[in-house]
Amino acid sequence: MNILITGANGQLGNEMRVLSKEHPKHHYFFTDVIETDGVQVLDICDKAAVSAFVTKHAIDLIVNCAAYTNVDKAEEDEATALKINAEALGVLGSQGIKVIHVSTDYVFSGDEHIPCRETDPVAPRTAYGRTKYEGEKRLLAECPEAVILRTAWLYSEYGNNFVKTMIKLGKEKESLGVVFDQIGTPTYAADLAWAIFTVIEHPIWQPGIYHFTNEGVCSWFDFTVAIHELAGITKCQVRPILSEEYQYKTPRPHYSVLDKSKFKKTFGVTIPYWLDGLKRCMAKLG
User: Fold this and answer.
1) What is the Cα–Cα distance from 88 to 171, expressed in whole angstroms?
2) Residues 6 or more apart in contact with residue 119 via CB below 8 angstroms
3) Least packed by Cβ within 10 Å: which of 46, 157, 164, 220?
4) Is the dihedral of CA 116, 118, 121, 124 positive or negative?
């Protein structure tokens, strides 16, 4: 197949570029809003540009890794977040070909006490969550055969993310307060890329909404402790604090655990444990 991968300069896009080398039978076109080595420029909000690109390169499948992910800035500029997270999905879905799209746990309220299933009612409480859910709806309206993967707590060795930030702060500070009352599952972007290729390589196309994160649960405090242990950071004391002690500009979900039963059953896979994913990422970070 000829596969278009958008958002190729981001965390997930970079992992898709790495993993694509293990699937050489397909031909890949990596795009983003900024041109870099091996990445072409494509504005996914521009329907004419997308249509021209899809036609020129005879694209069979679009994998959308692009997103407006700054939760706080989305509150201040929801119009831009809506354009990238929702309007662009209408554009990508209208091309008459299959689409794989990555969504988020933020479509839920975060008040749940058991892992969220794909059939649970959504109730986004932030501009980011609202625009991502709107993107899901617009994509499925245009392309009912699309695959949507909701994920959470994404990190990798690429770009800016929680793991890199905690390593930096751990080396700079003697003490660090991290919230312990927000629960979720850290997800290594390389494992999410593997999940996407699992969908691509499956002998039967299985459209629908799926949840995918690594296995297990932890708090941001637990996550930080594990990061520091693996990084060999011993002089920084990590203190557990309540969410109310941290001055968030935008509310964060207190419970972001996603039920992955549907994905595991449909594709017949075992999903890696979050700590194992972290160890692999940390090894690459050195």
Assistant:
1) 40
2) none
3) 46
4) positive
Question: Is residue 128 flagged as an active site residue?
Answer: yes
Both tokens of 276, joined, read: 């194992």
Q: The tokens of 219 are what?
A: 């708090």
Residues in the chain: 286
In order along the chain (286 residues), what is the average pLDDT of each group of 10 residues? 98 98 97 95 98 98 97 96 98 98 97 96 97 98 98 96 97 97 98 98 98 98 98 97 90 95 98 98 95
- The answer to whether 40 and 10 have CB atoms below 8 angstroms apart is no
Give Cα 29 to chain centroid, integer Å: 20
Residue 209 CA to residue 44 CA, distance in Å, equals 21
Residue 270: count of CB within 10 angstroms of its CB? 7
Model pLDDT for residues 222-269, shown as the tens digit of each residue? 999 999 999 999 999 999 999 999 888 898 999 999 999 999 999 999
CATH no. of 2-160+187-214+257-272? 3.40.50.720
> What is the biggest distance separating any 2 CA atoms in the chain, rounded to whole angstroms?
56
Average pLDDT, the chain: 97
- Listed in sequence order, the residues at least 6 apart from 200 whose beta carbon sits closer than 8 Å to its beta carbon are 1, 3, 23, 26, 61, 63, 100
Q: Which of 68, 106, 128, 188 is catalytic?
A: 128
Q: How far apart are CA 53 and CA 30, in angstroms?
A: 12
Residues 6+ apart with CB under 8 A from 60: 1, 2, 3, 97, 98
Close Cβ partners of 30 (under 8 Å, ≥ 6 residues apart): 5, 8, 13, 16, 17, 38, 39, 40
Task: Tell me which residue of 34, 43, 32 sits closest to 8, measured CA to CA.
Answer: 32
